[in-house]
């Protein structure tokens, strides 16, 4: 088993909580893990990414080789495209469709969606909208993770357990909304992938 | 033993705690900051009484660590690569004084300049100082090398440089801990003249350092961090330094490289091992992050031996960090790059946070200078360097810590009047005070804007040595009290702030303007923590 994942977004959108959830579940499952993050200057409203590698064998490089990533998980649509050179031709592109616009030359949405649709395997969903409907706008991340969950090769129960472990210190209500968000994202991905 | 998931930086910090350090000193700088922060937040470190603190700059941190070593205890000092330039005087001379208690200097290089103004290679500094260097290849080695580094340091009474790069600093992996070593007792150097670098003593001490070089090389030959892995295809031999080994084996099934590989983690270079590889192979490929240091040594000026491939002959790009693809291409393998980035994807540079005080300072400054031709604002290192970008386009330089004030003085001396310096509070106490003194002594016509957000912002909000002291420092240096003006950088004070800026820029002499408002990031964090504290108190009541 090997999963090489690019997590993408804009500084401050919290892609590291997705990484932490997958990482916790992977460690629990006894897998090896490497995760390269971006700290420092590029964090301030700029593009950020994290290379997350999980495997049942020892992992060599902290960086995923170009064209070898199994999945891009992005919390922002334009950012999902920035890492295409990393993605394998058979890889999954899983992205939020809600744009984060903090630049003047942000591209038109139709053009973005057309580029996303060019990837043979992709899931695109309005994670912010779904999270808002669930009454928990902050859980958009977990909606995206839920949408990626059918393709992760990690038991769904392990992800649920990881979310519980990570959020329990914030109370049971927070655990519940995050689990609901995970489930909502998962259902949409399963439906889109039929 | 327990396995922890740690950043390379955190592995070094945990290594320090477990190897029995008594103190760790630093000035924040990406990608080194998390080392010292980890020790500061560690309950274990606290219970062991380990001193962890931010110095005013890397030089004060380095000297403090050396002082702790003098007193017989183990200490660490951490900085980013350019911080080592600031600490260089103390660093280079510390090799000549030698250590008493173990001393490790960690320099975190930033190839590809993710968060820096250059990609200098700290291994050259180690070589320059004639000091042993350790370069970990993964998080576990980073941890283990701290233990080994202290043994080496105490065995030869020599400070040891540990060189890491951004990729290791900010990547997580599992790390297995070792048993915790006790801290050293207070114990002065046997020779109380060891640290006196008067010429007569320094000559003696320098000879000690020179005489130890053979022993350092011998230690490298025997080191478990330097390994020669033999394989059958001897058309090519490969030398990897630090992380490069991982990028190499990533390209082969089951990580089996067909060529002999010399994996380097400890310097000075193991001459015998290199000779053995060179003699047995037709040509060599050198894979190293940073400058082509090993490659230059092996090629020599005349390059008349076997073919040496690497950054100098274009096999590997001359700049930027390595990755698995660069190594694949260097080996003649196909580049596996996937779909190109679509043209519509726009750049998204970092920007000042919403509500950041610097926004309003720059708005006022830009307007105050609008009637003069552009190109007279010298800036410095920090979040406010983002003033170089749109929509501000407000600054004209960013060179090194503190250079804003002194460059403004130089430009004013040349006749560029008014000249303006823009510097953050923490950068001011790091390296700005002496420059301000120069300007006052020379009665230069400059205006220094000290952006006081009460923290070291860019690296994530560490304590600033300047808090509550800036006006006093400026007055003590000799700036006239009436030309030290404090403003509140908010939109509603814009007209008032603009008037003050115009007045002080027009003044023929040194004036200081201090826009003062807390960093929006630290403010948000503080409010959240206070809210949490209140909630806990409430529930307890």
Largest sheet of chain A: 6 strands, mixed
| Rg of chain A computed from alpha carbons, rounded to a whole number of angstroms | 16 Å
CATH homologous superfamily descriptor of the largest domain in chain B: Thiamin diphosphate (ThDP)-binding fold, Pyr/PP domains
What is the distance, rounded to the nearest whole angstrom, between the alpha carbons of the first and last residues of chain A?
Answer: 24 Å
Find the structural class of chain B using helix and strand composition.
Answer: alpha/beta
**What percentage of residues of chain A falls in helices of 4 or more residues?**
40-55%
The H/E string of chain A reads: EHEEEHEHEHHHH
Q: Give me the number of helical elements of chain B.
A: 20
Fill in the CATH topology of chain A. Answer: Pyruvate-ferredoxin Oxidoreductase, domain 3
Of all protein chain pairs, which has the greatest interface, and how many residues does each chain bring to it?
A-B, 56 and 50 residues
Which stretches of chain A are low in confidence, meaning pLDDT under 50 for 5 or more residues running? Answer: none
How would you name the CATH homologous superfamily of chain A? Pyruvate-ferredoxin oxidoreductase, PFOR, domain III
Mean of residue pLDDT values of chain A: 93
Quote the beta fraction of chain B: 15-25%
CATH class membership of chain A? Alpha Beta
Rough shape of chain B?
globular
Overall geometric form of chain A: globular
Strand adjacency order, main sheet of chain A: 2-3-1-4-5-6
Q: How many domain regions of chain A?
A: 1
Tell me about this structure.
The complex is a heterodimer of chains A (194) and B (541). With 194 residues, chain A is an alpha/beta fold. Chain A has a single domain, classed as Pyruvate-ferredoxin oxidoreductase, PFOR, domain III (Pyruvate-ferredoxin Oxidoreductase, domain 3, 3-Layer(aba) Sandwich), CATH 3.40.920.10. Helix content of chain A is 40%, strand content 23%. Chain A has helices at 15-28, 77-82, 109-117, 127-133, 140-148, 156-167, 172-192, and strands spanning 2-10, 32-36, 47-55, 69-74, 87-96, 121-125. In chain A, helix 4 (127-133) crosses helix 5, helix 5 crosses helix 7 and helix 6 runs antiparallel to helix 7 (172-192). The longest helix of chain A has 21 residues, at 172-192. Chain B is an alpha/beta fold and 541 residues long. Chain B has three domains: 3-182 and 196-222, Rossmann fold; 227-330, Rossmann fold (3-Layer(aba) Sandwich); 357-523, 3-Layer(aba) Sandwich (Rossmann fold). Chain B has 20 helices and 19 strands. Chain B has helices at 8-18, 33-41, 43-47, 58-70, 81-86, 88-97, 123-128, 139-156, 166-169, 199-222, 244-250, 271-280, 293-299, 324-330, 357-368, 403-413, 425-441, 470-477, 494-506, 520-540; strands spanning 3-7, 21-26, 51-54, 74-80, 103-109, 133-134, 160-165, 171-176, 227-229, 236-241, 261-264, 266-267, 283-287, 307-309, 377-378, 419-424, 446-451, 484-487, 511-515. The mean pLDDT of chain B is 96. At the A-B interface, strand 2, helix 2, strand 5 and helix 3 of A face strand 8, helix 11 and helix 14 of B.
């Amino acid at each position: 088993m090997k999963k090489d994942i690019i997590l993408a977004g804009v500084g401050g959108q919290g892609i590291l909580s997705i990484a932490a959830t997958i990482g916790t579940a992977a460690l629990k499952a006894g897998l090896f893990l490497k995760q390269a993050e971006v700290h420092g200057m590029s964090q301030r409203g700029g593009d950020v990414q994290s290379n997350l590698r999980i495997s049942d064998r020892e992992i060599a490089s902290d960086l995923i080789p170009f064209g070898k990533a199994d999945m891009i998980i992005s919390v922002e649509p334009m950012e999902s495209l920035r890492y295409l050179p990393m993605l394998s031709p058979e890889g999954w592109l899983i992205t939020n469709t809600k744009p984060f616009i903090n630049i003047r030359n942000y591209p038109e949405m139709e053009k973005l969606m057309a580029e996303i649709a060019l990837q043979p395997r992709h899931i695109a969903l309005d994670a912010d909208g779904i999270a808002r409907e669930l009454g928990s706008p902050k859980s958009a991340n977990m909606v995206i993770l839920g949408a990626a969950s059918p393709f992760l090769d990690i038991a769904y129960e392990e992800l649920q357990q990881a979310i519980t472990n990570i959020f329990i210190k914030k109370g049971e209500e927070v655990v519940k909304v995050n689990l609901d968000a995970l489930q909502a994202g998962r259902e949409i991905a399963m439906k889109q992938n039929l | 033993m327990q396995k922890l998931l740690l950043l390379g930086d955190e592995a070094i910090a945990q290594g320090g705690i477990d190897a029995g350090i008594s103190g760790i000193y630093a000035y924040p700088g990406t990608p080194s900051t998390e080392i010292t922060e980890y020790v500061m937040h560690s309950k274990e470190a606290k219970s062991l009484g380990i001193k962890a603190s931010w110095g005013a700059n890397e030089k004060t941190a380095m000297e403090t660590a050396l002082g702790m070593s003098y007193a017989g205890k183990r200490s660490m000092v951490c900085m980013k690569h350019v911080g080592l330039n600031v600490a260089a005087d103390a660093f280079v001379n510390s090799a000549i004084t030698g250590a008493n208690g173990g001393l490790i200097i960690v320099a975190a290089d930033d190839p590809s300049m993710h968060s820096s103004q250059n990609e200098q290679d700290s291994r050259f500094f180690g070589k320059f100082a004639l000091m042993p260097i350790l370069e970990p290849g993964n998080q576990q080695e980073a941890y283990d090398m701290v233990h080994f580094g202290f043994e080496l340091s105490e065995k030869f009474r020599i400070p040891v440089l540990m060189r890491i790069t951004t990729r290791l600093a900010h990547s997580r992996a599992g790390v297995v801990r070792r048993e915790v070593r006790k801290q050293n007792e207070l114990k002065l150097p046997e020779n109380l003249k060891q640290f006196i670098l008067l010429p007569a003593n320094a000559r003696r001490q320098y000879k000690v350092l020179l005489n130890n070089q053979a022993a350092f090389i011998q230690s490298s030959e025997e080191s478990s961090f330097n390994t020669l892995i033999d394989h059958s295809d001897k058309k090519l031999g490969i030398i990897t330094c630090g992380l490069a080994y991982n990028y190499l084996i990533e390209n082969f099934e089951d990580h089996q490289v067909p060529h002999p590989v010399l994996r380097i983690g400890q310097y000075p270079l193991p001459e015998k091992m290199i000779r053995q590889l060179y003699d047995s192979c037709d040509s060599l490929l050198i894979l190293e992050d940073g400058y082509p240091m090993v490659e230059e040594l092996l090629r020599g000026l005349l390059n008349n031996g076997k073919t040496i491939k690497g950054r100098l002959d274009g096999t590997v790009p001359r700049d930027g960090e390595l990755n698995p693809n660069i190594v694949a291409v260097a080996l003649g393998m196909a580049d596996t790059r996937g779909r190109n980035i679509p043209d519509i994807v726009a750049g998204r540079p970092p920007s000042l946070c919403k509500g950041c005080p610097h926004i309003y300072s720059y708005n006022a400054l830009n307007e105050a200078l609008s009637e003069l031709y552009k190109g007279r604002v010298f800036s410095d290192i920090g979040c406010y360097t983002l003033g170089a970008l749109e929509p501000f386009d407000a600054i004209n330089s960013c060179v090194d810590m503190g250079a804003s004030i002194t460059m403004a003085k130089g430009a004013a001396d040349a006749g560029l009047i008014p000249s303006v310096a823009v510097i953050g509070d923490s950068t001011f106490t790091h390296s700005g005070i002496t420059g301000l003194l120069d300007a006052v002594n020379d009665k230069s016509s400059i205006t220094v804007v000290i952006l006081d957000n009460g923290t070291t912002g860019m690296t994530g909000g560490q304590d600033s040595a300047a808090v509550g002291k800036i006006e006093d420092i400026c007055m003590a240096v000799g700036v006239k009290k009436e030309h030290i003006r404090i403003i509140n950088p908010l939109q509603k004070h814009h007209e008032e702030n603009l008037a003050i800026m115009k007045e002080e820029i027009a003044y023929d002499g040194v004036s200081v303007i201090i826009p003062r408002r807390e960093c929006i990031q630290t403010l948000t964090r503080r409010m959240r923590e206070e809210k949490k504290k209140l909630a806990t108190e409430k529930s307890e009541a």
